[in-house]
Amino acid sequence: xTFGSDAxxxxxxxxxxxxxxSHTTLELLTAxxxxxxxxxxxxxxxxxxxxxxxxxxGKINFWRGDVRDGALLDRVFGGExxxxxxxxAVVHFAAxxxxxxSVDNPLDYYNCNVSGTISLLTAMSRHNINSxxxxxxxxxxxxxxxxxxxxxxxxDTRPENPYGRSKLMVENIxxxxxxxxxxxxxxxxxxxxxxxxxxxxxxxxxxxxxPGNLVxxxxxxxxxxxxHLNVTGLDWPTVDGSGVRDFIHVVDLAKGxxxxxxxxxxxxxSTPATVSSTAILADPTIHPTCPTFNMGTGSGSSVxxxxxxxxxxxxxxxxxxxxxRRPGDVAEVVANPAKANGTLGWEASLxxxxxxxxxxxxxxxxxxxxxxxxxPVGVEVxxxxxxxxxxxxxxxxxEPGSPGPNR
Length: 407
Known about the structure:
By secondary structure, the chain is of the alpha/beta class. The protein has a domain at 95-376: Rossmann fold. Helices cover 35% and strands 17% of the residues. It is built from 12 helices and 18 strands. The chain has helices at residues 19-30, 47-56, 70-77, 99-104, 106-126, 162-180, 214-222, 250-269, 277-282, 303-314, 338-344, 352-365, and strands at residues 10-14, 34-39, 59-64, 89-92, 131-137, 185-191, 193-195, 229-232, 244-245, 247-249, 292-295, 301-302, 320-323, 332-333, 371-372, 375-376, 386-390, 395-396. The strands form 5 sheets. The chain has a 9-stranded mixed sheet with strand order 11-6-5-4-1-2-3-17-18, with helices on both faces. The protein is globular, with a radius of gyration of 20 Å. One of its GO terms (molecular function) is UDP-glucose 4-epimerase activity. Keywords: Carbohydrate metabolism, Galactose metabolism, Isomerase, NAD.
């Protein structure tokens, strides 16, 4: 099943209650899609979806469960939603994502990230769903080649941790599926470093336990929840010795997924380019029915520069101390986003100052994220049960899903 010419498209977002997933769900609803979310809530809260619904005035079909549960996927794809088209596309976020943690727990990462995607693609095949957007990572590149300042998609892929290797494995699996299934169209998006929050301050990053990313640490330090920030490595060959990253605003990234889905539709409507197997082997990112795009700004900022910007935006200090490098880290990773800019018609528009401003607004208004004084806040959702979230009521059953924003 592909996008119908007149039908209102219906998209499954796996991991859609998480940080990037919830922001993407919001942008999809705003763009006129119906959205169903599947998330096991291992590092997320259904409260994020309730808040997304409050922002757009719409409803979201939510299933609590794991993408490795094939029987559940059959129910999700089975078209139980009344008044909606069946799901015609999938945006796949559900994964473990901490590079340092993956070094200590590689089997968990391969099981979740690789096995989970195979389960999802297999279920999509059973239900003839042939549009796919995959959440990959710049970690597939590893250490940039000498002299490369802006990493292009055709750069060598030499990931330096199990997290990056698991994502690269999945990329190759998706390409093989697209080669075997002539109806399949997939878009692979390699993220650089998503930060920030929606400008409303209503949704943002709310990690459980120890954060896996830099900015939540910085925010917790600014808020006084941590005594200091550990800057891991000040001996990198960079502008100030701290690691340099291409930070991208999460809202820009979310809009990139809408552009990717639109491009997947274009791929269905056009005859695939003829590309030799030898050329694809030399550069897999040019696969005619499974293209790959960097999602970044093309501009790098060091950890110390980001800390300085956060201090300027908040007017508060960020105490920090030097700490050893983390296993699997690299010195500098900055995207060349030209391919996405030209082909997808997408471009990041928000800078580091806006990222810090929006992240601090979210943090200052939600000190405990989606958790309240007595623990997690959100709709109580049983495993394997569909709940309609948003529109002023959360309930189980077969009610129609999201009507989307006013149009």
